[in-house]
Amino acid sequence: MVGCHAMGTPVVHESGGAHGSGTPGTSQMAITIKRDVLLVEIDRHCFFPGCNARISIGLTRLEVPEYRGFECTHCKRWNDDQLARRDIPEWWDEFNSSGTFS
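Predicted structure:
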C-alpha cells in the first residue's frame, strides 16, 4: 500500500509475506513523497559583478506570490528579484490581480 501524510513527508509501506501480493517470505517497499505541482521555471543570472552565474528556479503555485529573490548557487549571495509578466504570461493576471508584482 502506498500513501502520504503531510506535504513532503515520505511514507513507507511494506507489503509481502502471507498478507501481501508478493511471494511468501519476500517484502516489497514503496516510498511516496507528495509534491506540489510545478507551475513555472524561470531563468535568472546572478546580479553581482564577477559572478553572473545562470540560475534556474522552479516555483509552485504557492511559491509564486511569495517570490522575492534567490540565492546564487555559485557565490551564495542573495539576489533581490521579482517576477515580471514575461516570466508567467499565462498566469500573470491571476497572480497580479492584487498588485502583488507591480
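Summary: Confidence is low (pLDDT under 50) at residues 1-15.
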